[in-house]
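[job 4471] stage=fold_predict status=RUNNING
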Amino acid sequence: MKKLILIAFDAEQTFIMNELKFYHEHSDEVHCTLYTMRISDEARRSIENIDIVMIENEQNLGIRQKVGVLPQLIADVLYAPLYYLKEQNIRYQWNRLASKQAIAKQIESNVKPSETVLAYWFEEEALCLSYLKKMRADIRAVSRAHAFDLYEEEQKGGRQPFRQFMLENVDSILPVSNHGVHYLRNKYPKYASKITLGSLGIPESDMPLNEAPENPVIVSCGAVSARKRTLEILEVVKRIPNATWLHFGAGDLFETLKEKCEGLNEINVQLKGHVPVEAVMEYYKNNPVTAFISLSSSEGVPVSMMEAISCGIPVIATNAGGTADLVNESTGLLVDIHYDTNTLLNAIQEKITHKFKDTTFREGVRAYWESHYNATRNYKKFIDTIIQ
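[job 4471] inference complete, writing structure tokens
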């Protein structure tokens, strides 16, 4: 039997739970131990075949514990002195390093030689994993990479501290998109051989393939935020004749969005707020949807889009991050991230009037999910890749 140790400080996100449920359901093939700081009792009950170890997040560390991470701190300061002059966060980064080293020590004694340890994010978890690898050269250290933890331009100050340290110590980095693979390989060619694709996926379901409705029903799902550009979605969809727009999700700009929707006569808006993914899928099951829309400025490979195409719902999305892996001529409409609103509206109107209503096309949308983002297929391949 294969064994996997997974570090995910917050195990509550939908896509992490999708992966954990795969390991739970295939516990006769993969024995998984999860190290985490946050997981609900309900989530625990859904993955009973996984061993769960709660991590103590040590913050008040003494000087003796902090001295051990000085070489990594000094190396990063010398590598990017202007960053530290601008951000003035040396003390914070020093404490951050010491905390991750302390967590690595908690895990170290429970890892056997040659076992694979997976960090779910190429940030805090991968930093912890890097210290674990320094302590235990006999383990295999692997990290996923998604979006905010991958694209340094989105980090405060335009860089990710200690990335060189992580790249040197982690044996393999698996971005969830081809865009992420190319980004890392181009930026760090020295480590190109360590970087390969590790696609996500969502579970199979018994979703019916609904026909498109007579009048346009457009759905979006995600945080109401500047990065997701939810307010821009409103500006686009309100100009689609006879349209209904449903948004699942809340966030910093939710109240602003509600105010902008008040008194709108040209469109039927339904703001659902934060709901569990099961509620979104239940809506797809019982209601016809014309298309899913996302105008984000940055993405990994959005699970919300996988959920849509698994139901045969075409996707309209900006070419942000790894979105192009999922959105193409076979699944919907991929638009420039710096789109012109009128051009976008014309393209949407043409698609929702003709192509997106075609049953054969919608069947092809679901077939693309089956061949590219089926969780069982992708996670089996992932395990075969990281556990040798």
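[job 4471] summary: Residues 217-372 form a domain with the Rossmann fold fold (CATH 3.40.50.2000).
[job 4471] exit 0
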